[in-house]
Specification:
The chain is built from 14 helices and two strands. The longest helix is centred in the first third of the chain and has 38 residues.
Length: about 350
């Protein structure tokens, strides 16, 4: 984590310089993407400092919320760019929706798979709270249903009334936000598990609240700047490398925006804290589906670039398959390295399919 937070900071000024010096779009895109990585890490450090003062539950919610901040900023910048440039709107909107799919798949297949694989290789069979894993798995399936209904019904509705598709997406977005709010209420209403913290698990606050908030503000400004550079280079990169905005959204944007949180999830699994690792991967997926996706729908409406929750059939198939296998692995309350390898295999297969998909 220290390497991510310090070593990669050099790419922040490089990306900014590349933008003003008219470097190759691919180079600008790469440096901007690498520059977002350490900034996302610093958001994690600042939220951890705030979490020490707010308590474990509120701190956990704060970590989950701000952990997705980098990706949320990138997608908001893409929506705004699509609103300002109608010629790029369709491609950028595809990138935004693909990033939602990619984030969910990345968390439940890639990160959870790596966590279970490496944790299992070091610690053997690992056990976790079966009840909480079941609740998260059910919520994930609910999220996929919520994302799938507008997609399946939208094509038939579109033929009669395009505006109705937008109204359906807005209605589903409201319901998803309500469900997300109810899940938070449920979490805070449950009795504390009363587990004894592991040695070294917690630390005293090293930063004042003012310092942590200041770091969050500064880092957010730079992430917004790099996101604008990143999004501005998308079209030239697509033309130069022959990949699609869809593939960039499915694979690259989720990895860039969430890499710091992903590293933490894998690290705690190796330390035999599989329950925390599961909470990070599944919790982040839930927040992307039930909070970030609805927020993007309303943001698109406000910016004059409506985003609907209509995903293509390939995304739906990948989401259903990925969530189902993750739920099956989590339901028995234990994991082993083979199950981690199975999740990674599914992610690789889906990634290859999306790479060759000509959309």
């Amino acid at each position: 984590m220290k390497y991510l937070n310090y070593g990669l900071l050099i790419f922040v000024p490089l990306a900014i310089a590349g933008r003003f010096l008219s470097w190759s779009p691919v180079l600008v895109f790469a440096t901007a993407a690498l520059g977002v990585v350490p900034l996302a890490g610093w958001i994690g450090v600042a939220t951890e400092e705030l979490a020490v003062r707010t308590g474990p539950r509120l701190g956990g919610l704060l970590n989950a919320t701000l952990g997705n901040a980098a990706e949320l900023i990138i997608t908001l910048v893409a929506i705004r760019a699509g609103a300002l440039n109608p010629e790029l709107r369709e491609g950028l909107n595809e990138l935004v929706k693909a990033s939602i799919t990619g984030s969910i798949l990345g968390n439940v297949l890639l990160i959870l798979g790596l966590s279970i694989l490496l944790g299992g290789l070091k610690n053997g069979t690992q056990r976790f709270n079966r009840r909480q894993a079941g609740v998260n798995s059910t919520m994930l399936i609910l999220a996929v249903i919520a994302l799938g209904v507008p997609s399946l019904f939208g094509h038939a509705i579109e033929a009669v009334n395009h505006d109705a598709v937008e109204y359906l997406s807005l209605g589903v977005a409201v319901v998803m936000l309500i469900v997300y709010g109810l899940s938070i209420v449920y979490t805070f209403s449950q009795p504390s598990p009363g587990e004894v913290p592991e040695e070294g698990e917690h630390h005293a606050a090293r930063w004042r609240v003012r310092t942590a908030v200041g770091v969050l503000v500064v880092v957010t400004v730079f992430i917004a700047w790099l996101s604008e550079i990143l999004v501005g280079a998308v079209e030239p990169v697509v033309a130069q490398l022959g990949v699609t905005e869809f593939f960039l959204g499915i694979i690259l944007v989720p990895l860039v925006g969430n890499v710091a949180e992903h590293v933490v999830g894998v690290q705690v699994a190796i330390k035999n804290r599989m329950e925390l690792s599961l909470a990070i991967s599944l919790g982040s997926s839930l927040q992307i589906a039930l909070f970030v996706a609805p927020v993007l729908v309303f943001a698109g409406l406000l910016m004059g670039n409506p985003i609907t929750l209509v995903f293509n059939q390939f995304e739906l198939i990948a989401l259903v398959g990925g969530v189902l296998i993750a739920a099956l692995i989590a339901l028995d309350g234990e994991s082993n390295w083979l199950e981690g390898a199975q999740l990674l295999v599914v992610y690789v297969i889906i990634g290859m399919a999306f790479f060759f998909l000509p959309i």
